[in-house]
Amino acid sequence: MKIILNQDVVNLGEEGDVVVVKDGYARNYLLPTGAAVLYNKTNAAIFASRAAQIEKRKAEKRAQSASMKEKLDATVLNLVVPAGESGKLFGSVTSVMVQDALAKQGIEVERKKIEVATHAIKMVGTYSVIVHLYENEFSHVKLIVESEEMVRERKAAEARAEEEARAKAEAEAAAAAAAAQEESVAQEVASEEMPVAEEAPAEESN
Fold first, then answer.
1. How far apart are CA 31 and CA 4, in angstroms?
2. Which one, of 185, 197, 74, 73, lies nearest residue 138 by Cα?
3. What is the reported pLDDT for 193?
4. Is a pLDDT exceeding 50 seen at residue 206?
5. Bridge-partner residues for 66, per DSSP?
6. Contacts for 146-151: CB closer than 8 Å, 24+ residues apart
């Protein structure tokens, strides 16, 4: 069936594109949801009259896509999932989990645009998740998958490091205070031991 897309459809086309799809796909999804309209002279003329507006929206989407790509490329996600002692995951990492993790960082992405190779993520470790953007643009988001045990160990190590840093800072502050006190005492002693200069006798007047 020949249709005109009324909006962008992932892996199919953009607003205003004329495409041919299977009848069932068109009747069961694209047409009922308003994502597309039938291709005919009337609808073709309507879209032709909207060509300038559609192109303007496309330019705006390209700009938004570039901005989103820059943000996503710099994003690091941490997911904590159940895993065995060997690091093998009990469950799987899904696009919903990635979408939620992005949302917590203030980044809203449609789930259907997130591509997670669940078959490849079977162990804790660092992975890359693909997020499809506008047109053929996409971003790679760094994904760190950890087990609950790893998180506990990391937090314990961070707590120990923080305690050691605090103790070191307190020791340095105490040493500096002691040194300052010693210097002050030394200056006082030196001033007390310093001889007082005798005044020269006044000359007698004739």
1. 10
2. 73
3. 65
4. no
5. none
6. 146/78, 146/79, 146/80, 146/81, 147/80, 147/81, 147/82, 147/83, 147/87, 148/80, 148/82, 148/83, 149/83, 149/85, 150/124, 151/80
Residue recorded with tokens 């937090």:
155
89: number of Cβ within 10 Å? 18
pLDDT 10s digits, 5-14: 999 887 788 8
Cβ neighbours, 10 Å, residue 174: 10
Phi, psi of 97 (to 5 degrees): -65, -40
Q: Which residues contact 122 (CB under 8 A, 6 or more apart)?
A: 88, 89
Q: For the chain, what is the radius of gyration of the CA atoms?
A: 36
The pair of structure tokens assigned to 195 is 């001889």
**Under DSSP, is residue 144 helix (H, G, I), strand (E, B) or coil?**
strand
Strand-pair partners of 79? 145
- At 188-204, the pLDDT tens digits run 777 766 665 555 555 55
The angle at the Cα of 112, spanning 110 to 117, to the nearest 5 degrees, equals 120
Sheet holding 138-146, edge to edge: 76-80, 138-146, 125-132, 114-115
Q: Supply the angle between the helices 41-49 and 51-73 in degrees, to the nearest 10.
A: 70
